[in-house]
Amino acid sequence: MSARDPRWDPQWIVPDWPVAPAVRALLTTRAGGGSRGPFGAGAGHGGLNLGLGSGLPQVAADDPAQVARNRARLAALLPQAPCWLHQVHGAEVVDAGRVPAGTAPAADGAWTTRPGVVCGVLVADCLPVLLAEAGGRGVAAAHAGWRGLAAGVLQNTARALRQGLGDPAARLLAYLGPAIGPQRFVVGAEVLEQMQARLPEAPAAFAEQGGGRYLADLYALARQALAQAQVDEVHGGGLCTVSDPQRFYSFRRDRVTGRQAALIWLDAAQPAIA
Asked: Which residues does 144 contact at the CB level (< 8 Å), separation at least 6?
């Protein structure tokens, strides 16, 4: 398990996976910020909403100044501010260490081999996937909703990390964070069709409900995508954002809601393992 910083909110999640000591990872929840209303944490507590909006003009967004304060509060607990992305449900992946501070490139994955650089993705039902090289030489984060999975974002992220390491056979471990669960994710036949074009075994992750509707298992689809990328050591999964309104933001459940983060970086004080 990655080490827990005592300054972190106790409701935040530290992944339980057998990574090298150099790998640090954190998944935030609703807790620990100053946002209010639908962006809060319930019972009058401030929420750590880290998202500036859904991108849909008809859906209300949090106060940008409060989001900035939440992001600053989080950044103060990390080696540096995360490399935030302008997530577009695609498959583009960037080198987080080369992204200028204060910018957000259009991408859905980021990787680094530089200690102290924080890769991060924002989610509110889509699946956050963290990757780490077994020896702690590099890490990555990916935003994997169904469109990103169908576009190959996980395969691209694993490939980019291995290319950055200069090791096409690098052993990678994966951690699946909280996402909409397989009993809550209702989709149409077009999702199954697009998934099967990328993942031949995709139908096994869909349960027909009648009327052309299906329940889709994002965790199972991610495991299929990771297997294509030769990432067989997969941990996490099973936490449903929709089913736990006290802990997680969920766009499908609430529409007007915030975003939590999945973050990963290399600890400069810990050497990689050869």
From this structure: 108, 126, 127, 128, 129, 153, 154, 218, 222, 225
CATH for 23-181+235-266 is 3.60.140.10
**Which residues are CB-neighbours of 211 under 8 A, at least 6 positions away?**
none
Contact 116, 264 (CB under 8 A): no
Q: CA of 48: how far to CAs of 74, 156, 201, 217, 250, in Å? A: 9, 30, 37, 27, 14
- Do residues 129 and 176 make contact, with C-beta atoms less than 8 angstroms apart? yes
Instruction: Report pTM.
Output: 0.96
The pLDDT, as a whole number, for residue 54 is 65
164's enclosing H/E stretch is helix 153-165
* Mean pLDDT value across the chain: 95
**The dihedral sign for the CA sequence 213, 178, 251, 141:** negative
Distant-in-sequence, close-in-space partners of 217: CB < 8 Å, separation ≥ 6: 182, 185, 205, 206, 207
Task: Answer yes or no: are the C-beta atoms of 79 and 265 closer than 8 Å.
Answer: yes
Least confident piece of the model among 59-68, 137-146, 215-224, 254-263: 59-68
H/E run at residue 155: helix 153-165
The pLDDT value given to residue 42: 82
Q: How far apart are the first and last CA of the chain?
A: 19
CB-CB neighbours of 244 under 10 Å:
15
Distances (CA, A) of 224 to 29, 129, 218: 27, 13, 10
Three-state secondary structure readout of 64-84: HHHHHHHHHHHHCCCCCCCEC
Task: Say whether pLDDT at 12 is over 90.
Answer: yes
